[in-house]
Structure formats: C-alpha cells, structure tokens
Design brief:
There is one protein chain. By secondary structure, this protein is of the alpha+beta class. Strands 2-1-3-4-5 form a five-stranded mixed sheet. A hairpin with a 6-residue loop joins β3 and β4. It is globular, with a radius of gyration of 16 Å.
Length: about 130
Amino acid sequence: MSKLTLNDLRKLRDDKKKAMTQRDAENKSGEVIIGMGTCGIAAGGKAVFDAFLDEFEKVGIQDVSIRQTGCMGLCFSEPTVEVAAAGMPRVVYGNVDEETARRIVREHLKGKALVSDHIFDKPSVDIIKATGK
C-alpha cells in the first residue's frame, strides 16, 4: 500500500465533507432514508446508499438529504428506501439495487414521477389526506 500525500489527504477530506453536506437535513426540500439494518446491509444497502450519492452529484441535486435508518420491517424487500419529496406522497420502495436507486433520483426526485414497479408501501396518512377521511 502506498503512502498518502498531503494533497491526497486534502482531496479525501474535501470529498468526505461534500458527502456529509448531503446528509444535513437543514434547508432541504426532500429526504431519502435507506434501511440499513442487518437485513438491509446484507441485501446491498451500502451500495444503494453510494449510488444515491453518486446520482445526486450527477444530476445536481443538493436540496434532498440522505440518511440511514434501522430495519423498516420490510425485510423481504430489502434494500428498502423511503422517499419524501415536495409535492409528492411519501413512498417506500423495495428491492432497490444500484440502478433502481439511480432511477429514483432521475424519475422521482428530478422528474416528479413515481417508480411504480418498486413501490412497496405508501403510508396511509397520504391516503387519508387525499380522501378527507
């Protein structure tokens, strides 16, 4: 393993700072929550998390925070991702791989359209608001 130079360390620090600002929920219009309990990690949650960060950077999304949580109770559909975006219902996506994560960023967060083939749960609070009951 080669030694890191001071410039290498500075670049690493700057890259990590940039990634951490995406986790800051302050002044953000949406949020992505990735299930990273044991089942989520084993199913590939870390790679999904990294894919979201990478795609955020590619499409220029800075107003959506990303964070991780424990088990969401949908272990059969891990990795699971909950997405909240302004003007859209809060949705839980299941069986999310790296490509699906990228689709969620492009289609849901950027294009304001649900990625229907991966929706596993839509909390009832949204249904109640829509029907008024």
